[in-house]
Specification:
This protein is of the alpha+beta class. It contains 28 helices and 22 strands.
Amino acid sequence: MPITDKLLGFNEEVERKEILNQYRYLLRSFPKPLTKSEKKQIRMAFEMSLEAHQGMRRKSGEPYILHPLEVARISVKEINLGPTAVICALLHDVVEDTEVTLEDLKREFGNNVMRIVDGLTKISGVFDVNTSAQAENFRKILLTLADDVQVILIKIADRLHNMRTLNSMPKNKQQKISSETLYIYAPLAHRLGLYAIKSEMEDLSMKYLESETYKMIAKKLEQKKRERQKYISDFIKPVKVAMEGEGITCKVYGRPKSIFSIWHKMKNKGVEFEEVYDLFAIRIIIDTSLENEKSECWRAYSAITDIYTPNPNRLRDWISTPKANGYESLHTTVMGPKGRWVEVQIRSKRMDEIAEKGYAAHWMYKEDHEGNEGASTDVWLSKIREMLNNPESNALDFLDDFKLNLFNKEMYIFTPKGDLKVLPRNSTALDFAFDIHTDIGSKCIGAKVNHKLVPLSHKLNNGDQVEIITSNKQKPNEDWLNFVTTGKAKSKIRATLREEKRKVSQAGRLIVEKKLAKLKFKLTEENLAILLNYFNYKTSLDFFYDIAEGKIQKKALDILENKNGKLDVPSKVTPHIPEEADEIDNAIKKQLKHNAEVVLFDGMSDIDYKMAKCCTPIPGDDVFGFITIGDGIKIHRANCPNAVQMMSNYSYRIVKTRWVQGHEIAFLTGLKIKGIDDMGLVNKLTNIISGEHEVNIRSISIESNDGVFEGMIMIFVNDTKQLKRLMKKLKSINGVLSVTRFEN
């Protein structure tokens, strides 16, 4: 049956044409011609998805089928995945949202497709409120890494399309989804080498989390676009001439930095947009053979530094030692025209393909040259698999450990035999021991770093040579968790401690069983619940462990009695402490019983709320409420340092919040002021703050060093409008270089 007949169920002719065009566009996206069998399978997947999603629409109103089509297109066009991944992308939502089952997929497309789609299907059912559903989803997705990394790549494609179409979602959903993206998906894309996708995810997340700042930077970039293009053109001209003179075939162009990276630099360095000079990077892509790549890149570097003076502290050689995610490039920063620092990235076409499309491009290259798809199995993936072998870990602990493995800043450590190990920055000698082998880590008592004896907690530096010292008498202890950095070390230490605790608790269980046996009882679940309730324990493991360790004396069990064949405890039972999950659940029900949102300072609300001290929100700030246990709702700024983690892991505790106009309440906030030191500076500042703007000062602290001052001023303001007017006036003082708001 022709596809056009399958589309008759759609109302508008325009929609039918759009769906058909998107399907044809998908088929044209493949870099290599498809076989008849591949075309047939892709069409079957498309038709199954089309039929399954019949009548379903997205929030934007468009037919739902356009979403899996676009995810499939991103998978092949922007990530370089093959036909199998495209089939899975087309079907990624059918099991979760429709009547189609995994068995249906297995029958039609085979076990491989079924397994990948299963990995992509979100966990259904009710979650414990103390567990992040998103964390559980990630654990399930990552379990499939042992077989096929395509799962995570398709999931990234799915999230990218969701971010591109986030406009149609309500604001609270935009913030939640953006926070998840910034917290996990963008670092994950970075770790898998998908730099273009990582940058787009960060920019789109910022668009919804910090919309005003995003618009400001975007507007200023557009205003300076012509000036920037002229500067790039002037910088590139002599470089192209030099490359031709050296006989190097290459493309040279300027690429603007992402809005998010510019904002990140502004925050980290405490500077205004106008003070961020490296708004772009020059990229040199060399067309050369595999065996000549390294020498050609260094020749290009030599030619560049003959024209422009390099910064000796800003050379990054990721050609000799590639990043753990496969990234290869030569980075340098040179002094360009008009005294401006310019970053230059030098790499081959192959390196650039891997830099933009990550592992998928790496695999395609391996397949083309070695006939062995997936020959380059990354060390990082094997570390994640090791973490997944610990199924009992709490979902959020797992997610935190996993995040540790996403850090892009790495260092290179050598074994005594000269083997190279890649670890995250700030890793300790104990991290290195666990990286070699779990047994070595568990028995580690110290290390020799560059032939000098150091303790387990010693932080390693790039290029260190490390020898681990072990003892069979050594065992992991809880203190180790305070100084290890890598996810592998943390998960293995926790697993060992749990196993040790389990062994000890067995002795405690026997003590309880003997006591109950004297009373002619067995240790049933019902009797255990009575004991846990009386002694205020959440888990039987902790209870039995404390019995074995003597923290609960054996004679304490003498309170147990046999009354009419039932286990009995004294009438004055210590109140049962509900689990944290119950407390959160009750708090949510209590706070939101009659209110869909918190209206701040309207004089009518009966909801208990407080301003968070971590970000000190004031009226006019974009804010949200977060339900706490026993402390009501805390109001946080949307750009609070903790916001991304809270929205990502505890979205069910987020409450919509808005300000009411016309109040006269003063709020504490802080300003950081930098500038050139001058006589009477404090007097000028206080005159403007308290005199002209009638703003109360809580505290002021100014330090001067070598003619430069830095001040911290805590003030009370009514709202963001008043604060912005004051900041503008302070910036106008002669010698003041920057005025920024800061969190406590």
